[in-house]
Amino acid sequence: NLSDKLDKALHLLKGHGKITEVNVAETLKEVRRALLDADVNFKIAKEFTVRVKEKAIGQDVLTTLNPGQLMVKLVKDELTDLMGGETAGVNLTGNPTVILMAGLQGSGKTTFSGKLANFLKTKKAKQVLLVGADVYRPAAINQLQVVGEQIGVEVYAELENKNPVEIAKNAIAHAKANGKNTVIIDTAGRLAIDEALMTEISNIHKAVNPQETLFVVDSMTGQDAVNTAKAFNDLLNFDGVVLTKLDGDTRGGAALTIKSVVNKPIKFIGTGEKMEAIDVFYPDRMADRILGMGDVVSLVERAQEQFDEEEARKLQKKIAKNQFGFDDFLSQIQQIKKMGNMKDLVGMIPGAGKALKDVDIDDDAFKGIEAIINSMTPLERTEPKTINASRKKRIAKGSGTSITEVNQLLKQFFQMSKMMKMMQGGGAKKMMQMMGG
Ligand code: GDP
Ligand code: MG
């Protein structure tokens, strides 16, 4: 993928003590090839390398002590600029604020509508109304209702009405009458751009005059994503882009090209199917991620949001008093699971992304562990030392695992407790601060 290729290209320079004009040119050629392979538009990739080269010459890469690092920085800065430089917010000043979703079928509109509703509700204390204006498939409205239920946000739908323009207008009236200050309209999509779809979304757009029209696009679709973006932008002059499915393998290509083709900022990214898998888009962090440095800041931020601070303090006390038991262990696992897809999180750790790329880490990894802990009695959880051979047998049976697995978990647990005790003071505190602030 793009990260690997850029890494390789830049490695050409990293290793060398002496840099010549020739190997700077070589390196940039590789960078350009990596960009092209990642579906970055030809013209953009070319201009990109020209700009980096100009800067490199201006900064005298050839004579600096650490030219490799300087090149990485120049490439990173250029990537950041290409993706818009600054983070762009959403305009929430309407009364109510109307946010319209547009995009092809399967791009992730319905999922993202839910994620955004949840985000605005929890982060910005907004009263949100979700609107189902995808009238073609009964399942579409149902999908939105399931999402709404999950996040505790009302969903407005009219099952008998097949006119999305009317539904959207009625929904806004409903929002006004019911004290909702934010309306998110989920619309229908087609598999490809066609006349009927474009007319429909354009009519809804005209009728509701949204503060924010967000174009939702699947980042895995590469160059197609860019073409679709252009067509939608010509029609709607949208305000921002949402890049979904960035948890997949294809990272970067679409993100790098869209901004310069439609000249609209990427505002959010989707990184998984869960409602929490939404991030504000930061061009510089994305550049880091593309360069394989890992998006550590996002990772820590997400961990902080999910990890209850009170919980963290309690845990710290328990560790200090040597009272850490299996119940705490279980709640740790649940906290980790709440943070989202494991692979996604691991991918954000610098270096780990590559090392663990082929290792299958998923939520199921915890299933056996949870089953074992759930089969323990409360006493066994707080005093694991009381678990003897016959109890192990019973726990294995109750959890559908084997005695070996139970033994393994106990061993891990005792090792962990020992380590926690040892780390008490500096290390443990630091770890907890990272997790819980
Ligand atoms: P819509 O047709 O535009 O409304 O798309 P949906 O919201 O129904 O999403 C299509 C599929 O993509 C569903 O299976 C979603 O679960 C999935 N999906 C949406 N966003 C993401 C994401 O950020 N990451 C991953 N992995 N899957 C996503
Ligand atoms: Mg949908």
From TrEMBL:
User: Per UniProt, where does GTP bind?
Assistant: 103-110, 186-190, 244-247
Quote the InterPro entries the UniProt record gives.
Answer: AAA+_ATPase, P-loop_NTPase, Signal_recog_part_SRP54_M_sf, Signal_recog_particl_SRP54_hlx, Signal_recog_particle_SRP54_M, SRP, SRP54, SRP54_GTPase_dom
State which Enzyme Commission number(s) the record gives: 3.6.5.4
Q: Where is the SRP54-type proteins GTP-binding domain?
A: 265-278
Instruction: Give the highest taxon in the source lineage.
Output: Bacteria
Q: What's the chief localization of this chain?
A: cytoplasm
Catalyzed reactions per annotation? GTP + H2O = GDP + phosphate + H(+)
Report the locations given in the UniProt record. Answer: Cytoplasm
Q: Which UniProt keywords apply?
A: Cytoplasm, GTP-binding, Hydrolase, Nucleotide-binding, Ribonucleoprotein, RNA-binding, Signal recognition particle
Describe its function.
Answer: Involved in targeting and insertion of nascent membrane proteins into the cytoplasmic membrane. Binds to the hydrophobic signal sequence of the ribosome-nascent chain (RNC) as it emerges from the ribosomes. The SRP-RNC complex is then targeted to the cytoplasmic membrane where it interacts with the SRP receptor FtsY.
Q: Which family does it belong to?
A: Belongs to the GTP-binding SRP family. SRP54 subfamily.
Instruction: Fill in the subunit field for this protein.
Output: Part of the signal recognition particle protein translocation system, which is composed of SRP and FtsY.
Q: What does the record's free text say on domains?
A: Composed of three domains: the N-terminal N domain, which is responsible for interactions with the ribosome, the central G domain, which binds GTP, and the C-terminal M domain, which binds the RNA and the signal sequence of the RNC.
Q: What is this protein called?
A: Signal recognition particle protein
The beginning of the lineage is: Bacteria, Pseudomonadati, Bacteroidota, Flavobacteriia, Flavobacteriales
